Predict the 3D structure of the following.
Amino acid sequence: MAEDSNQGSLPRHIAIIMDGNGRWARARLLPRYVGHREGVKSVRRAVEACLDKNIKALTLFAFSSENWRRPSEEVSLIMDLFVHALKKEVVALNRNGVRLRFIGDLTAFSDNLRALIAAAEEETRDNSGLDLVIAANYGGQWDITQAVQNLAARLVDGTLQPQDITPDVLAAEVCLSDLPPPDLFIRTGGEQRISNFLLWQLAYTELYFTDTLWPAFDGQKLDDALSWYANRQRRFGRTGDQVEQKKGA
Ligand code: IPE
Ligand code: IPE
Ligand code: MG
């Protein structure tokens, strides 16, 4: 675990629940879909800001494993938007050095969408500018479950013993194990819940909640979150005095 993030610093990894698209649209008497479409512009702004600031990783919750419960027309419009955004954005992302990756159970998506995802990941895999992770049909409980399945398979074939299963061993099997854990979590839209996002990975993340609806989340709002983060004292179980001493050392 990264225990050296000092006060005043930028997060290396930001994870965002992009919530409030529907309410943003409703407030304007527009269909919910328009809110999702506007939300894509906020994604673009957030990616550009992270590139500008040299932030290493950005993970965005785009579609949860529970979002299938929405009306089928809305789900299908969101899927169309994914396809459209992938077709439109990947060239520019690649040019800007972004490495794109999807996490979640992608088997539920159409062949067309899966092919676009695979192509985008392949095309950007050697980039090193910003790790952009899209969580789609993702659930934190699914993530931990698939990690446990991987370990269980090794127990069965005898390459792992039960007593060898430690938090580090499990951590290596959950999504994003190759990235630093999120330093900063942002949820827009006013709700203060995790909604089955990165349950394992958020263990020591700083949690920032804002009433701003996702389509209205711009560079200034991100800067507000970053200033808030810069003023947190990350203690990781230690006392505040210990952290201060370490900083001065
Ligand atoms: C978040 O916005 C986007 C997705 C879940 C796909 P919502 O669609 O949840 O917007 P609200 O919460 O209804 O305003
Ligand atoms: C969380 O938003 C999922 C995404 C932003 C993709 P929701 O709007 O689905 O969350 P709940 O259901 O209100 O908690
Ligand atoms: Mg919502």
Observations:
- Confidence is low (pLDDT under 50) at residues 1-5.
- The pocket of IPE (ligand 1) is lined by residues 18-23, 63, 67, 78, 189 (CB under 6 Å).
- The chain has one domain: 13-139+180-248.
